[in-house]
Amino acid sequence: MKSTRREFLKQALGVCAGAGLLSRLPERAFGKEKPWPDLVAVKGASPVQLFEAGIRALGGMGRFVKKGQAVLVKPNIGWSKTPSEAACTNPDLVAKVVAQALRAGAKDVFVFDHSVNVEKECYERSGIEAAVRAAGGKMRSAEKESSYRKVKIPGGKVLAEALVHELYLDCDVVINVPILKNHGGGRMTGCMKNLMGVVWDRRFYHRNGLMECIAEFPLVRKPDLNILDAYLVMTKNGPRGLSTEDLALKKMQLLSADLVLADTAATKVLDMEPGQVPYLKMAADLKLGSMDMDKAKIERVSLGS
Fold this sequence. Notes:
CATH superfamily of the largest domain: LarA, N-terminal domain
Low-confidence stretches: 1-32
Mean pLDDT: 90
Distance between the termini: 56 Å
Radius of gyration: 21 Å
Shape: globular
CATH class of the largest domain: Alpha Beta
Strand content: 15-25%
Helix content: 25-40%
Oligomer: single chain
Structural class: alpha/beta
Largest sheet: 10 strands, mixed
Number of helices: 11
Number of domains: 2
């Protein structure tokens, strides 16, 4: 019986090989499981193409989103700016993330940000509201305090508690989709600082210790996936920018489940050193992620020049 079974398996594998199917099967199917990368760095194409290649290298959206789950996609929609001004996350990227989450089986995909400028203007002018609705996602407001709940920050010393948007607390999956920018006070806007957009009182951060608050907030909850938009990057005068002269076309994207690692890599895109962004080490010391690029498994994908 065992011999017959082995012969059957050999024949089946031969048929698959002849049809060119084996190359499409993951290594884990043959007991050679290989860990997914800690970080994927993609460059050389459009924001959507970068994401499609990056999420595939990271294991696919199905690794993060399961059937029937509620998903929050959290971009930067803080400013009443157009996509060409690179103050907000690229709308095509946000739409593609929403679409892939739905395709992976999400029941609902919500999108919001606690905008700095007037919310309605930010949602419309950034192009994100229209793109999200076209992709099947649901835009939600963040301008009413009643949408926030007070929570304790476990282990927070400066940020002991905060009013946090209910969707960040209640959704099964959080996908963080910031845009990379220079920032005067925080040195850099990336994955960690983007989470200020789920908090009601951002002024508390600025009054009591911006670096410490940014580092401590993920103690509440870390995003399940971070997709850092570094296609068109604001290299100075952030986070709002003064003109398109502040921008550099990098055509890059960083994807990771580790928001500290993603932000550490992002400093290099801004021609900075990780030590220039104090909240990175603070967060690493809190065991919220790693700054060790040498030990991280990084997959680099180049899609063009």
